[in-house]
Amino acid sequence: MMGWCCSGICRTLAFLALLFPLWQRGCWGLKPSSGDLEKSPHSDPDPWEVLHRHKRSWVWNQFFVLEEYTGNEPLYVGKLHSDVDKGDGKVKYVLSGEGATSIFTIDENTGDIHATKRLDREAQAYYTLQAQAVDRLTNLPVEPRSEFVVKVQDINDNEPKFLDGPYLAGVPEMSPLGTMVVQVAATDADDPTYGNSARVVYSIIHGQPYFSVEPKTGVIRTALPNMDRETRDQYVLVIQAKDMVGQMGGLSGTTSVTVTLTDVNDNPPRFTHKSYQYTVLESLPVQSVVARIKAADADIGSNAEMDYRIMDGDGPGMFNITTDENTQEGVIILLKPLDFETKSSFSLRIEATNRNIDSNFLSLGPFSDTTSVKVTVEDVNEPPVFSTPLSKMSVSEDAKVGTSIGRVSAHDPDTSNSGIRYSIDRNTDLERFFNVDALSGVISTAKPLDREANSVHNLTIFAIESQDPMEIGKGIALITVLDINDNAPVFAIDYETLLCENAMPGQVIQTISAVDKDEPLSGHRFYFALAAPVAGNLNFTLRDNKDNTASILTKRGGFRRREQPVYRLPVLIVDSGSPALSSTNTLSVRVCDCDSDGVALSCGAVAYTSTGLSTGALLAILGCIITLLVSQLCFKVQNVKYSICGQMALFSANVLVNYH
């Protein structure tokens, strides 16, 4: 709200100044002779124009009221008068409509209208009222009701306001002069159709000489070219909007505009040093970080992203460099093991290059830089190293104790070249089958070997430095035990052979096969035959199928279990080893009573009525005992005794078969 003069004179002068435009516009023009409202040539156009009316016998002025009137007395608005009113008091004036009685009052005798409250145009710009002249005694209208408008005349009592402020804006650094940053806008609640109260101009109070603002549009532009974000990245501007077209006495409002210079890639990466030196231990594991280097770049975000590469160096394939995406550092990684004794230092040439180069700023480049990196390898005391980490050896399973199998060799990689002592990790040789010579590394047998029990021995060999026993190297000796033919073939399973009493001659009653613990390179080949003493018996025959199986066939029919319930055939099995080994295995054949389909119903001996044992039964028992004794003896005798065992077994079997 505008200020008011404290003295009565000031208030009077201000009031007259406000009334002067109204006088110019002729708003108070009145044609007394007509009784109609007469508009001045300078009066307001629609919508404030009073609607056309029929000729009346009473008239009033078109009314305007100044807003924000601060006088002590009610503000005179205007006067209503009817030609019917002869001044004799018979006519009474009545006012109705918006604000009647609450804001506007009328003297019912004289028709004078006053505003009793201070009005605000920004709250309500005009009021529509109805006036009527009535007979005082009868209250009957002497004139038709007529409508008129009281317009609230604007004064400059509202300052411009930035409804969207304060503002945040950004503009790329290095922008040309006059680049638009943002547009601000202020609004003024005063009447934009009357005077200059709502006509705003913009100016910059704070922010020069970097930025400017267009007075009429509020567009803010850069006022200096090539502003550098790295020098200063933010500016706070104060923008003023002043009404009355910026003239003296106008009201003003301000807002702040925070302008941030956004980054562009106008700074190339640069290493802070032309060379770097790093030291690492030769024991550093592969894929470990050797060093981190960084090229400085004043830009930020994607404009500071860079790639590193090794341009050249004297250790090809030893190192690699990658970019840490969080820090934009170049991370040098070890790719191969280091060895101080082989090479104690490496020199690398490394380049850093911006990923996102802006073609508008190529003249500020080049956008890459190089530096030298020297990596020095420090010696450490290393454990002995085997010349061959895995030594493969072989030994025959019949090797004598103390037989040398092979030799392992290790050396101290350090310059001290300490002596080496060897030992076996006994956790890998719990039964102590082997020994190693502590000085020469020769491995030998310490116990007889059996390939069938353990065909491969995986030994861990320790190589221990003489000067520093804590430095221990490890190697592997893989010893394969070679097979010899030291196992005779035997029946694959314990066969249960059933023979029907009604079997026909030439009938196959059993197919047998064999197994052998040995594993000849060319595979197994077994030969089958009935033992010599029973080869010509009249009951059974054997047919070698030449596929490592044999068939047992009957030579006759008419077997009777009452006569002999069980037959025992000694079968000779010979392998193809060198020398060949053989064994005699007894096949028991039980005679059974079978149905017509050959299914055994009952097998074994038939009970006799007489008591005691016959001579045949006694001989059968004796034969079994002899067979068991021979079998036990054969298992305890070495390979050279197989022929004796076979003859004794054949003898006992011959006794049984011939008797029956």
Which tags fit this structure?
42 strands, disordered N terminus, five-stranded mixed sheet, 660 residues, mainly beta, disordered C terminus
Write the layout of secondary structure elements.
Elements: H1 8-25, E1 58-60, E2 63-66, E3 75-82, E4 91-97, E5 104-106, E6 112-115, E7 126-135, E8 146-153, E9 167-172, E10 180-183, E11 201-206, E12 211-213, E13 219-222, E14 234-242, E15 252-262, E16 270-271, E17 275-281, E18 289-293, E19 295-296, E20 306-313, E21 319-324, E22 329-334, E23 345-354, E24 368-378, E25 385-386, E26 390-396, E27 404-407, E28 410-411, E29 420-424, E30 434-436, E31 442-445, E32 456-465, E33 472-482, E34 490-491, E35 497-500, E36 508-515, E37 527-530, E38 540-544, E39 549-554, E40 566-574, E41 582-594, E42 600-603, H2 615-636, H3 642-659
Parallel strand pairs: 2-8, 9-15, 17-24, 26-33, 35-41
Antiparallel strand pairs: 1-3, 3-6, 4-7, 5-6, 7-8, 10-13, 11-14, 12-13, 14-15, 16-19, 18-22, 20-23, 21-22, 23-24, 25-28, 27-31, 29-32, 30-31, 32-33, 34-36, 36-39, 37-40, 38-39, 40-41, 41-42
Helix pairs in contact: 2-3
Keywords: Calcium, Membrane, Repeat, Signal, Transmembrane, Transmembrane helix
GO biological process, one term: cell morphogenesis
Subcellular location: Membrane
